[in-house]
Hints:
The chain is mostly helical. Among the domains are: about 20-65, no CATH class; about 120-165, no CATH class. The protein has helices at about 10-20, 55-65, 85-90, 105-110, 120-130, 155-165, and strands at about 30, 35-40, 50-55. It starts with 7 loop residues before the first helix and ends in a 14-residue tail after the last helix.
Amino acid sequence: MHIGAKDRKGLQRLARYIARPPLAKPRLEERPDGGVRIHFKRPWSDGTEGIDLSVVELVERLAALVPPPRANTVLYHGVLAGRSSLRERVRPRTPPRTRRGSDCHDRLSKRPSSTSRWVPWALLLWRAFEVDSWACPTCDQRMRLRTVVLAPASIGVLDSLKRSARGPPDTMTEPVGA
Length: 178
């Protein structure tokens, strides 16, 4: 399905489709004995128009539709499939290996454990945009984190930078040719 950027009606249709409930309320009917009758859209070939369930059976069937945790609910095919021979051509490349010294970044940040579900932001930038955030923009060498300035010390650092910064002269009082 393709929806254009300015197709508001198409976007509304998609949002309604995604947000629809698992069962249509008009098709549910509460019976006097405490059970539930689910009416089908159209009668079956044998004339059956619905199914009668107890409340517990209905909940059991709805719970069976919920996938287990960490189970893949989206399966890919074609070049995106897990065992496709062409998958390596479309996957992003792994970031280049750089020598990891004991720089300040390593001392100041927690090192993610192998079981951690958090991914460092630098790796996320590489995966999404193939940008090495630690590469110097001028020489492509690995940059190092020199210091971390935390509040309230940051106010003093910013004030000192403001005093040491030189900008263009304010207004010239004398003419240039004088």
